[in-house]
Amino acid sequence: MLEVKDKILCCGCTACVNVCPERCLSMQADDEGFLYPVVDSNGCINCGACEQVCPLSKKEENITGNYPRAVVLRTKDTETLFHSTSGGFFTPLANWIFEHNGVVVGAGFTDDFEVVHTFIDKDSRERVQALRGSKYVQSNLIDCFPTVKQYLEQGKLTCFSGTPCQVSGLKSFLKKEYNNLITVDVVCHGTPSPKLWNRYLEYMKNKYKSAIKELNFRKKTYGYHCGTMEVVFEAGRIYHGSARTDLMLKSFFSELASRPSC
């Protein structure tokens, strides 16, 4: 039976929850707001599937021989580049996926600015802009992995974007390689909790006495290499705060807010 005794050894990827044949695991928040798997002992059959699928429990393979070729990419579209965090390559990659009748999976905002993984196909391709840009919060994967597997089994080209631990969790859950799967690892700096993010949102709404209309974690207000939080309020005011002054960015870049496993 799975039991998280040391939180450093759980990245919250949800692979264990989704692999359980009895569906007796659920992701529940701790005091800091990070999600961890919790077992309903009444339904557990002690099959061990949850423990075997955990990406952090697997031994790393020694990498020897030839390394994959690496390239640096940046989109030629200046508008996409401006609204992206780095080189903006995710957008043309997504468009290529849509041209091949595929589906793109990545972290986006809900109407309440919760960060969740969402699915976008060619019929809803205009929503791909919501997946652009950094979100310095651990996203909610909900039932993402089983849906990805369903698309792959149907032969649909699927592109999954997430943090390295999320990508590792997905591949562990799938248990085999798929030629129609493309994964994009977002090289992250750690993942703050949704609870901290929600408190920041409430703080900003109370301080500026307005609901929030739009958010950008890494606006290029002060240049390409400067992390800047932009918050657009429905009342009309626009806030900009650098990583030296904004509470959310400051806690993130100083590594005060990351999940223990990070």
Can you give a write-up of this model?
This protein folds into 3 domains: 7-57, Alpha-Beta Plaits (2-Layer Sandwich); 78-185, no CATH class; 194-253, no CATH class. The mean pLDDT is 91. It has 262 residues and is α/β, with parallel strands linked by helices. The chain has helices at 15-19, 49-53, 78-82, 90-99, 144-153, 164-174, 194-208, 247-253; strands spanning 25-29, 35-39, 103-109, 115-121, 158-162, 181-185, 212-216, 228-233, 238-242. A hairpin with a 5-residue loop joins β3 and β4. It is built from 8 helices and 9 strands. The strands form 3 sheets. A 4-stranded mixed sheet has the order 4-3-5-6, sandwiched between helices. Helices cover 26% and strands 19% of the residues. The longest helix has 15 residues, at 194-208.
Keywords:
26% helix; three-stranded antiparallel beta sheet; four-stranded mixed beta sheet; 262 residues; 19% strand; single chain; alpha/beta; Alpha-Beta Plaits
Short description:
This protein is an alpha/beta fold and 262 residues long.
Helix percent reads 25-40%
List segments where confidence is low: pLDDT < 50 over at least 5 consecutive residues. none
Radius of gyration: 19 Å
DSSP summary: helix tally: 8
Structural class: alpha/beta
Number of strands: 9
For the residues shown, what is the average pLDDT?
91
What profile does the largest beta sheet have?
Answer: 4 strands, mixed
Tell me the span between the first and last alpha carbons. Answer: 24 Å
Total domain count = 3
Strand content: 15-25%
Bulk shape: globular
Order of helices and strands: HEEHHHEEHEHEHEEEH
Instruction: Give the strand line-up of the largest sheet.
Output: 4-3-5-6
Q: What kind of assembly state do the chains in view correspond to?
A: single chain
